[in-house]
Amino acid sequence: MTGKVIPSCKVAALVAGTLSLTPFSASADAENGERLFRACAACHQIGEGAINRIGPQLNGLVGRLIGTVDGYDYSDTLSEAGADGDVWSEAALSAFLEDPRGYLPGTSMVFRGIRDETDRTDLISYLIQEGGTSEAAAEAGPESGPSPEIAAILAVEGDVAYGEYLSSECTACHRGAGGEDIPSIAGLAPSVFIAGLSAYRTGEREHPVMNMVASRLGDEEIAALAAYFEAQTTE
Predict the structure, then answer these.
(1) Which domains does the chain have, with CATH numbers?
(2) Greatest CA span in the chain, whole angstroms?
(3) What is the pLDDT of residues 62-117, one digit of tens each?
(4) How many Å is the Cα radius of gyration of the chain?
(5) Which end of the chain has less Cβ packing within 10 Å, N or C?
(6) Helices (H), the chain
(7) What was the pLDDT predicted at 145?
């Protein structure tokens, strides 16, 4: 026993998820799920050739241990869940998609959640359709790893003091524990922070303010900010 407190919604989802994987999505609308996935595609890839980018690739998501994709730097919360044997059953995934930070407090995923149960079911159906089972994904052995641009920034040793100097532009919006629309970035893993800013800098992710801010930052500045915010806490 680890002694950690597991949210009641997580307990219910894990119990339900042990019953079966297929009935949950048997009547789902995968086409609607594909439409919903467009928001996820800013961070995640799925299907043939999918690799880890801002978020981990999602092939074989349903049925695998949480936080266990090779080559991806997960938050402690997801890594610990996988170490405890927690699996992405369809029910568990639905609970997470409804309220990511409520279901797994401490997750670094920046997503407000999907409140509609039908939409969540449709999205999960699409994930299964495109990404297959966890066993099939393991056999396929998809490539993983950061893009060359992200790898170049990760190779820079971030100057925490310089990052603190630069941070005021970030903390003008990203404050404390964050909110529904503007998440906290305190304590964020450097790989996740760097991947996010890199995506805004290249236009892979679109947000007028973030695109403008990121376009002014060089590799050294991004690495410094990543080092500074990694050292911060939301408490």
Answers:
(1) 8-140 (1.10.760.10), 148-230 (1.10.760.10)
(2) 54
(3) 888 888 888 888 888 898 888 888 888 888 899 999 999 899 988 888 888 999 99
(4) 18
(5) N
(6) 8-17, 30-40, 76-83, 90-98, 100-103, 117-131, 134-140, 148-154, 160-166, 168-171, 190-202, 208-215, 219-230
(7) 54
